[in-house]
Amino acid sequence: MSDTSKGAQQGPAGSAPGRVVVVTGLSGAGKSTALHALEDLGFFCVDNLPTSLVRPAVEACEAGGITRIGLGIDVRVGSFLAGATAALDSIRIGRDVVILFLDASDETLLRRFSETRRPHPLTTGGSGAIAMLDGVLLERERLASLRARATIQLDTTRLSTHDLRRVVIERLRPGKVDVPRMSTRFVSFGYKYGIPLDADLLFDVRFLDNPYFVHGLRELTGNDEPVRDYILRNGDALEFISRTEQLLSFCMPRYASEGKSYLTVGIGCTGGRHRSVVLTNVLSDSLRRKTGLPITVVHRDVARASASVVPSGAGEVMAGVAGADLRRTQPGAAAPEPRPASEESVTGGER
């Protein structure tokens, strides 16, 4: 038995749940997807629950003040099936109980098991389509009486996982519960420290002029007005903002409509302190207004100390000197060996 809940809605201890949704049906028809959709609506969900534990589980949730409960019941074993009717009847009194039964065509179920390479739970021997089909037919026969008692029957034959999630939310959403919306996170970062591992979309803004090399701006960040003004005076920056805003305002609502829960957009420059910070702030503010989606901002590397190892302007003066090594040397340390003129100079600053 696995507890799949996250962030379940709770109320006063001992209060009756507003709704108990029992999810059952044929294996491969989408029971796990339906339970995940209920989780997104704030239900406390328990999957693969034996029928003998239905009433104790509901009562335990009530004692903890949980107001919405989702139960995934597996009645593939004969002893479970025998107690299913009594178990469901035992929780109906004083409760709003909904039985959601998921079904699909035999061909669809066989295809889904083939794609996942998992055996049907009632397949007891043999191999290939014959044994698998026997398992599907046996399960369908065993569940006939439970299907007849279902409050809602859903045929998932032509539904993708995203479609099924959307249908479950539409049919079972409590009146005062908002449909879950995609949460979007904008992350500014420095490529020198690595890209965000969870980024779905990445934008590289290192083509813009770098305030790092401008006197008076190096120690500031993109959150400071002088740096912001410097970046936004650049026509390329404004063009980038316009084009990226157009792209994301098109993509974000469509990602959300397909059931995507999280979207992370990474915007990177060299050190993650100037260019990426300004553009992340501008784009997130604009898209928050345009899409209406919740957007959070993280400036991952803005607090890192500026890696200033060369006096301002030294890079420009020394870059053309053959063999020049601009690395900082400690007092008393031996002078660095000259390098061949063909080697690239090390400036120590940002590009």
TrEMBL record:
SUPFAM superfamilies: P-loop containing nucleoside triphosphate hydrolases. Keywords: ATP-binding, GTP-binding, Nucleotide-binding. ATP binds at residues 25-32. GTP binds at residues 74-77. GO terms for molecular function: ATP binding; GTP binding. PANTHER family: RNASE ADAPTER PROTEIN RAPZ (PTHR30448). This is Uncharacterized protein.
